[in-house]
Amino acid sequence: MNILISGGSGFLGSAFSNEIMSRYRAQNKALHITWLTRDSSQAHPNDIEMMTYDELTSSDKSFEVVLNLAGAGIADSRWSDERKEQLMASRIKPTESLLAFIKRTSIKPKLLVSGSAIGWYGTQGDKPLTESSGFETDFAHRLCNEWEQLALTATEYGVPMAIVRTGVVIHPEGGMLGKLLTPFKMGVGGQLGDGQQIMSWISREDWVGAAIFIIEQHLTDDASSQTTHENTLQTTNDTTAVVYNLTAPNPVTNHTFTKTLGAWLHRPTFFALPNFLLKLMFGEMSTLLVDGQKVLPQALQSAGYEFQQPTLKQALEGQK
């Protein structure tokens, strides 16, 4: 199998690459992975090929799967107008490059997996949200929706696609957990706001496992049996487009997350940051911290995926 990945060197793309290569080697299956990059000198594993976006414009290579993960971290800095433009451009421009390649190439990919986030649903408190749920309009929704709608253009070229709406990914090498480890290890970690906001999370191991599961399911002859009307998206033709929530089946409150992380690290969690201070510190971006989302992986579980780390305690203990 040939796989092309934008964002391949990132927090998720690198873990995905390592795991699928390990699995295919163990099964004696052929696999070739190419990472898209803007810097041809970027460090990378020896068994990964690098291709620049400029090279992609004239490449005659064919790929069975395209995995579109490029995008700046939404929680990395305060949402100024300039930062919002950066967040949008970092998703739109790589997706446009991939779509131009897909349109031009004579041998179309069998599947495009395109990233998104549970921010698509907007802030809806503790209301259970599945792939068929509606949304509330805010910046996070607009960011995810523009990214998704652009990616759906691939279906106009006859390429089936799966959109993966990702929750908070748990792993100490990066993401939210990576940022929290230092203050929690110092004993100054604590809950955010009143701690009752729901956090929809997924371990990085299960994110990778779910992504591989989705790819393998959709490349089988019975791929159509893995879709339901609840997670099927409307397209301009008969080409399949589906959405999956990549979240664990057991979301937790921020209070529970705080206590579970403190217990795992054997550190106290007495401190708390009130809502007004979070809003003062982070502005509009504070919605990611103080407003909850209860997003459930209905489509993923209906398709038969079995979580390896379905609880937060298991996800944290799996890192030891």
Automatic annotation (TrEMBL):
<dbReference type="InterPro" id="IPR036291">
    <property type="entry name" value="NAD(P)-bd_dom_sf"/>
</dbReference>
<protein>
    <submittedName>
        <fullName>Epimerase</fullName>
    </submittedName>
</protein>
<dbReference type="Pfam" id="PF08338">
    <property type="entry name" value="DUF1731"/>
</dbReference>
<dbReference type="InterPro" id="IPR013549">
    <property type="entry name" value="DUF1731"/>
</dbReference>
<feature type="domain" description="NAD-dependent epimerase/dehydratase">
    <location>
        <begin position="3"/>
        <end position="218"/>
    </location>
</feature>
<dbReference type="Pfam" id="PF01370">
    <property type="entry name" value="Epimerase"/>
</dbReference>
<dbReference type="InterPro" id="IPR001509">
    <property type="entry name" value="Epimerase_deHydtase"/>
</dbReference>
<feature type="domain" description="DUF1731">
    <location>
        <begin position="274"/>
        <end position="317"/>
    </location>
</feature>
